[in-house]
RNA sequence: GGCCCGUUGGUGAAGUGGUUGAACACACAUGCCUUUCACGCAUGCAUUCAUGGGUUCAAAUCCCGUACGGGUCACCA
């Protein structure tokens, strides 16, 4: 029996030959330095922050080189594939501004001419190449059952040998074609394994764009390439898809580096040109002093909905991810605070090669505060409105009703060189502006803390004197403050802080105490944005009303 | 256990043999400024680069060993 006959027997249903497939996927017409890369998730769940990072980096490398970024769905594990897995992934990523040039665009549709982009639809392609390998005697059917494999492994463990289906353990390698045919005709199930040409005692140099050159032993394991269900394993599909789709760079998590010898070998056996690899370290969590991988189950910040719920701007998340991934990004961003992250040129060499960074929410918060502080008030308003629509209905109603007023509140000490940094997330906003809405202010049980001035009559005197004698809606800030000083003088408080510090005993208090009384009476809080701006937005009538609570 | 990678302050890190008395950013602390808070400014925070040895006039930077951390060893990706 010839190899050809054997291949036809094993894979009689292959529609196209591998040569035909090669022709169907011509070279891409791109500049030589263009990066073609992909995000290739299995549709088994939602992407987490680590996936987002991979995805984002892949996208940036493709875009900044005028290359292609595509989405391929790796659904060869039919057991774990979930319903609508693709659209779920797409939806989450879209919220983070990740879109693809090619690939799946819904659960069923795709764009691009290098598809199908769903591995389950490429069954024939993988089988065509498997057939090629059988014909070339580089692969063989293997009948080893799960139990046999377990037995081998247990024996290897007990005798302290290397684990795996290799060398003399790969005994199906020696089954004759005739025996194999007979067993298959008798109904035995089988997989197809690659006949590894590797020698474990020889080393190969694998080059990773991030980790550098690594010396590793050759792979000598006869890896399964086609599973019992006729679908390929990850390793085989990776080689064929990335070859046919003309991927130039594979950017993925570093849990894959140990399979590199295997992958390189599959490329070689298939006669494919290698792709370049960049393996990203995982994001870590500091769990009581020990580092561990960020976990979707234990750590809310690992899930992507967290950012939407909290109202953390996606731009801030991206800036943070870029900061911890690419070591020269932060300095660049400091120098170009208003630039788009898309203007930064990422470099593999500047991506950290150490074990992984601890995901630091404090740092993200700081980035987010800075980002929000640079937003225009109207932009912030729109963003908060959109957030509140989903997560805070009461606030949403208020925002819709008082659009201009709210924008003015948000504009206090904003749109200037050194804007206030009050908000780290959209969900912080209401906590800091609630008192500006009469509906909220009047319906709440209020608690006032006037700090230094505690006497009720004194508070009343300050408030009453101020509103009746000194307050005017039309004052400029300078006029306004000079009147506050006059009020201080009249009531026996120091209008000048230096004077007060020199002779504290000569006064009842100082201008800060008086301002605090006014501030607290208006807002209940001693920590607010600029008092003058607050007064102007409130207006005399509303100020008066709030003061009257103390008469 | 085999193979691979990593280890610079509380965190992200710069730095690959000599202007490093180890940058910068976050966090933290103190002070200044200020009508509060925030901002801003100033100062402090690793006598030391996991550890032991070696090479060298000189090492965080090169070599070897050890420890610790991570990854992987599926008909899962």
- Beta strand count: 15
Number of domains: 5
| Biggest sheet architecture | 4 strands, mixed
| CATH topology category name of the largest domain | Rossmann fold
CATH architecture of the largest domain: 3-Layer(aba) Sandwich
CATH superfamily caption of the largest domain: HUPs
Identify low-pLDDT runs.
none
Beta fraction: 5-15%
Task: Sum up the overall morphology in one term.
Answer: elongated
State the helicity in percent bands.
40-55%
Gap between N and C termini: 107 Å
Please give the radius of gyration in angstroms: 34 Å
Provide the CATH top-level class of the largest domain.
Alpha Beta
Report the average pLDDT across residues.
93
Compute the number of helices: 23
Description of the molecule:
By secondary structure, the protein is of the alpha/beta class. The protein folds into 5 domains: 164 residues, HUPs (Rossmann fold, 3-Layer(aba) Sandwich), CATH 3.40.50.620; 87 residues, HUPs (Rossmann fold, 3-Layer(aba) Sandwich); 89 residues, Orthogonal Bundle (Glutamyl-tRNA Synthetase, domain 2), CATH 1.10.1160; 52 residues, no CATH class; 95 residues, Arc Repressor Mutant, subunit A. Helices cover 45% and strands 11% of the residues. It is built from 23 helices and 15 strands. The protein has a 4-stranded mixed beta sheet with strand order 1-2-3-4. Strands 5-6-9 form a 3-stranded antiparallel beta sheet. Strand 7 and strand 8 form a beta hairpin. Helix 1 runs antiparallel to helix 5. The longest helix has 17 residues. The N and C termini lie far apart (107 Å). The model has no long low-confidence stretch (mean pLDDT 93). The structure holds one RNA strand of 77 nucleotides.
